[in-house]
Amino acid sequence: MNEDLRICFIGDSFVQGIGDPEYRGWVGRVLIATGPAITAFNLGIRRNTSADVVRRCWREVDPRILPAADNRLVISFGSNDAVIEDGTVRVGRTQCLRNLDTLLTESRERAIHPLVIGPPPVVDGGEEHLERTADLADGMAQLCATHDVPFVATTRELAADPTWIREAGEGDGAHPGNGGYQRLADLILGGPWHSWIARPTP
User: Fold this and answer.
1) Domain coordinates of the chain in residue numbers?
2) Regarding the domain with residue range 5-198, which homologous superfamily does it belong to in the CATH classification?
3) 33 vs 71: CA distance, rounded Å
4) Alpha-carbon torsion (115, 121, 125, 126), positive or negative
5) What predicted TM-score, i.e. pTM, was given to this entire model?
6) What is the C-alpha separation between 53 and 10, in angstroms, rounded?
7) Are 176 and 168 in contact (CB under 8 A)?
8) What is the 8-class DSSP label of residue 121?
9) Which residue, 76, 61, 157, is CA-closest to 119?
10) pLDDT by residue (tens digit) across 123-165?
11) Which residues contact 3 (CB under 8 A, 6 or more apart)?
């Protein structure tokens, strides 16, 4: 790991940490557990789909990286893609996976090491939204495997988590409070995070 470790976190409102009364979200909690020697940039935007992230990614990430630094990119989206809007999903499964494939390919072309966090469930989205999101997460995991990129599954794990369900239900129906974000952070920290930080995938 280079002494100048820079991580951009890009995605949606879950990346942004909406609903957390402590304003840390899972990104802040993961960073605290990792240590101080990281320059981090939270680039989450509420309601963003994978298509939104692809459009803005490099114009936001490129100014924040340096050629001599250890540059990383954490990608997380999909929950908004699976939302039904005007009678159809906002971004179809195939297109979402294409968008992820584009970001993973372009990351490698820039010598930026990516990691992907699967889409969290939206409690008030109902069972059909959960099924679409879980199926999308499975496709993301398979795609990441072909790219040799670490993937953290969150959809089914959080859909069965009492704290996540309770806090999201008490809030806006989608975003948890501090306990839910801590649960999401625990999933990430208990997965490939530390090995990825120590030595990114070549």
Assistant:
1) 5-198
2) SGNH hydrolase (3.40.50.1110)
3) 19
4) positive
5) 0.97
6) 7
7) yes
8) P
9) 76
10) 999 999 999 999 999 999 999 999 999 999 999 999 999 999 9
11) 37
